[in-house]
Specification:
single chain; about 220 residues; alpha/beta; TIM Barrel; two-stranded antiparallel ribbon; globular
Length: about 220
C-alpha cells in the first residue's frame, strides 16, 4: 500500500500544478482568513477546477458557520471539508448534511491524552488528522500550519486506523515519520514553503518524492 499525500494551503496555479504533477492525492484550500494561505473565492474556484478529477479537493475551515460552508459547497465543490476548530460530533453531522462532503477532523496533539481524545470522533469523521498542538507561548499561533512536530510514537502507541499525519513534516523527516507512525497518509503545508504562505514547487516535488521513496507501512 502506498502512502497518500496531501499538500495543504495551495494558493497559486503554479504550485497547484506542481502538486498535481508530482502526484499529490489531496490538495487543500484555506478558507480561514487570518491564515497567510487564505484564498479568495475567484482563486479558490480556479484552483479547484484545475484539481478536479486529478486529486481530492479539501476545503480547510475553522469553526465555519453555515453561510461559509454553503458557499464553499456551491462554488468549490470539495471532496472533503477539513475541520480545524472546536467542532463537536453533532456539528460534524450537521456539516456532512449541509455539504455532502467527507470530513477530515484535525486533532491537536501534545500528549497521549490528546491521541485518546480522537476516539470521540470515531464514526463521525472519515479521517483524523493529527497535528502538533502549539505551545501557549507561541505568539500568533494558527490552528494549523505552524511547522511544529509532536512525539510521533504517541500515534503508533494509540493504534489509530484511518488517520493522516501532519505537523512539521518536510522532505528531510517525512520518511522517518512514516516509519514510526505507519501513517497511511501525510499532510504538509509550511514544510514546502520558503516563507509563510509561499509554496515552492521544487520543495513540493521533493516532499512527494520523499514520501514515495519511504518504507511502506505494514497493512
Amino acid at each position: 500500500m502506498s502512502v497518500e499525500i496531501k499538500i495543504c494551503g495551495l494558493s497559486t496555479p503554479k504550485t497547484m500544478e506542481a502538486a498535481l504533477q508530482a502526484g499529490a492525492d489531496y490538495v487543500g484550500l484555506m478558507f480561514y482568513e487570518p491564515s497567510p494561505r487564505f484564498v479568495d473565492w475567484q482563486t479558490a474556484r480556479m484552483l479547484a477546477d484545475n484539481a478536479r478529477g486529478r486529486a481530492k479537493i479539501v476545503a480547510v475551515v475553522v469553526d465555519a458557520d453555515d453561510g461559509l460552508l454553503e458557499r464553499i459547497r456551491d462554488e468549490v465543490r470539495p471532496d472533503f471539508v477539513q475541520l480545524h476548530g472546536s467542532e463537536t460530533r453533532e456539528r460534524i453531522a450537521d456539516i456532512v448534511s449541509l455539504t455532502g462532503a467527507g470530513i477530515i477532523k484535525a486533532v491537536k496533539v501534545r500528549d497521549a491524552e490528546d491521541i485518546k481524545a480522537a476516539e470521540s470522533f470515531a464514526g463521525s469523521a472519515g479521517i483524523i488528522l493529527f497535528d502538533a498542538k502549539a505551545p501557549e507561548t507561541l505568539v500568533d499561533a494558527l490552528p494549523g500550519g505552524n511547522g511544529l512536530c509532536f512525539d510521533w510514537t504517541l500515534v503508533h502507541q494509540g493504534g489509530q486506523a484511518n488517520f493522516m499525519l501532519s505537523g512539521g513534516l518536510h522532505a528531510g523527516n517525512v520518511a522517518g515519520a512514516i516509519d514510526v507512525t505507519k501513517a497511511p497518509a501525510v499532510d504538509v503545508s509550511s514544510g514546502v514553503e520558503t516563507s509563510p504562505g509561499k509554496k515552492d514547487p521544487d520543495l513540493i516535488r521533493k516532499f512527494v518524492a520523499a514520501v514515495k521513496s519511504a518504507r511502506v507501512p505494514a497493512a
